[in-house]
Amino acid sequence: MITLFRTNQVYGLDEIKDILATHIRSLPARISPVGMPFKILRYEFYCAPIDILPWLHNQHVPCKVYWSGRPEKEEETFEVGGIGVADVLQGQGDINYGEVFSYMEDRLSADNPHLRYYGGMQFDRPATDPHWAGLGSYRFIVPRFELLKAGPKRQTALAFNVAFQDIEREKIAAILGDLAALDFSAQTTYRSTPKVIGRYDYPDRQGWEEAFAKTKDKDGRFRYDKIVLARKSSFDLDVYINPSALLKHLRDKTPQCFHFCFQTDTTTAFLGASPERLYKRTGDQIVTEAVAGTISRGVNHGEDVALEQELLRSPKNALEHGYVVEGIRDTLKELCSSVRAQSKARLVKLGGGQHLVTQLQGKLHPKVSDDAIIGRLHPTPAVAGCPKEDVLRAIREIEPFDRGWYAGPVGYISYNTAEFAVAIRSALVNYDKLFLYAGAGIVEGSTPQGEWQEIETKIGNFIEVFNKE
Predict the structure, then answer these.
(1) DSSP state at residue 222
(2) 55 Cβ contact list (under 8 Å, min separation 6)
(3) Which neighbouring-strand residues pair with 121?
């Protein structure tokens, strides 16, 4: 049975809900869930343009999701804001990648290419910090309603998703109530930005020095090729945080990044602006990248160029970047029949810093699925280090906090494509508390003072949001 209904007609914002309601209301009489327990039905209607993040901000529901790809080729990127839950997969404890991806693949189909599960998963070990409890070790959802823009024309569409097992009169009546509550007003009002009333760093400066010292043996020799140590900065605010509003302000400052928000209740969410793609798969083609080597931006053009040259000539940053490129290349060789990498790192300038980036591409072996890709590719040396098992063990022992989803994979999976970013430059929002996470790659020649400042640079875009006057 076809599980996607689409029309090319474009509806006004004042009529789109009534049009969709007519179709939803007729479902129990027209469709039986018998024989289709795992499949999801999707309706898509083009509508007049409306900004997605303000629309998401205006919806008074506890569960929201937002994803926008990094601006590259317009026909390959899309932006989506989703509310409610048509299907959810969530778990605690250690992750069985095969089970997680098999569940989603069973519910996806070739005739419904735009149906996607959005979500993410933990970096490594299950978190014991209760602030992470709502997200679990992994969480993927199909939103009930989606507003999305895709393709070179950036045409806006409203989508509705429903599991076949939910097509029965009482549930449909509740869904119609949720549809009626959608707000398509063109205006939104953002309240004043919360003020910071306290900041605490884990570890603090002294703790950072002590953590840094643990990367060396008793004779002062560096123990690893590379290790990434992170910090958590906790901010107490004077009022609660609206995750959609925070992401809107953050996106304005970081236009060249992946942007994501996974909100589990009214004031709890994990969100961020990541410059780093873990991988994108289209059929049997995979694209990934090494992002390592960072320096700040200058206050003027001359200083910016000087810092650029310092980064390009830095032996420490070249060494760090090289470890990441080789680590990813070695992994791709196990997954792919052919691998290509850029011969030279390119420089990417973002609002929060300048980075060295090398893109790698490959053709996957037959039957290599997303669970195998994530299981082998994550975590890359960019967020863990190498040798992988040694540095993961050290991170667990040294860092005085749970990474949770920080530096884990976040993104989406559909029938023929999948894309995941690395959840760096990210934050956990919990009512009036904001937890910022960022890390620094440590290699031979690194200094604790230099890496502390690198982390400050990386969280700078978040901090600026709360320092607006």
Answers:
(1) B
(2) 81, 147, 183, 184, 188
(3) 138
Token output for 138: 């992994």
Q: What is the DSSP letter of 286?
A: E
* Residue that finishes a domain, picked among 151, 180, 209: 180
Residues 156 and 204 grouped into a single domain: no
Q: Are residues 162 and 231 in the same domain?
A: no
CA distance 9 to 293: 48
Give the range of the structural domain holding residue 129, as residue numbers without chain letter: 4-180
Backbone angles phi and psi of 9, in degrees to 5: -70, 145
Question: Domain check: are 137 and 265 in the same one?
Answer: no
Q: Are 436 and 459 in contact (CB under 8 A)?
A: yes
Crossing angle (nearest 10°) for helices 169-180 and 16-25 = 180
Residue 95 domain-assigned? yes
Statement to judge: residues 342 and 424 lie in one domain:
yes
CATH number, position 168: 3.60.120.10
Q: How far apart are CA 29 and CA 41, in angstroms?
A: 15
Distance CA 318, CA 321 (A): 5
CB atoms under 10 Å from CB of 83, counted, come to 23
List Cβ neighbours of 247 (8 Å cut-off, separation of 6 or more). 53, 66, 259, 261, 271
**Residues 174 and 201 grouped into a single domain:** no
Indicate the SS3 state at residue 89: strand
Predicted confidence (pLDDT) per residue in 231-261, tens digit: 999 999 999 999 999 999 899 888 889 999 9
Distance in angstroms between the alpha carbons of the first and the last residue of the chain:
56
pLDDT class of 389 with cuts at 50, 70, 90: very high
In this structure, are 208 and 106 located in the same domain?
A: no
Lowest mean pLDDT among 150-164, 205-219, 291-305: 291-305
State residue 84 phi and psi, 5-degree precision: 70, 180
- Containing H/E element for 353? strand 353-364
- 89 in any annotated domain: yes
Distance of alpha carbon 88 from its chain centroid, rounded? 17
Q: Are residues 147 and 269 in the same domain?
A: no
CB 318 within 8 A of CB 325: no
Treating both helix axes as pointing N-terminal to C-terminal, what angle do 370-377 and 97-107 enclose, rounded to 10 degrees? 150
Q: How far is CA 444 from the centre of its chain?
A: 30
pLDDT confidence tier of residue 37, bands split at 50, 70 and 90: low
Q: What is the dihedral of CA 257, 51, 116, 68, to 10 degrees?
A: 0
Task: Provide the domain count of the chain.
Answer: 2
168 and 207 housed in the same domain = no
Residues 210, 206: Cα–Cα separation, whole Å: 6
Tokens of residue 119, six digits:
């979500």
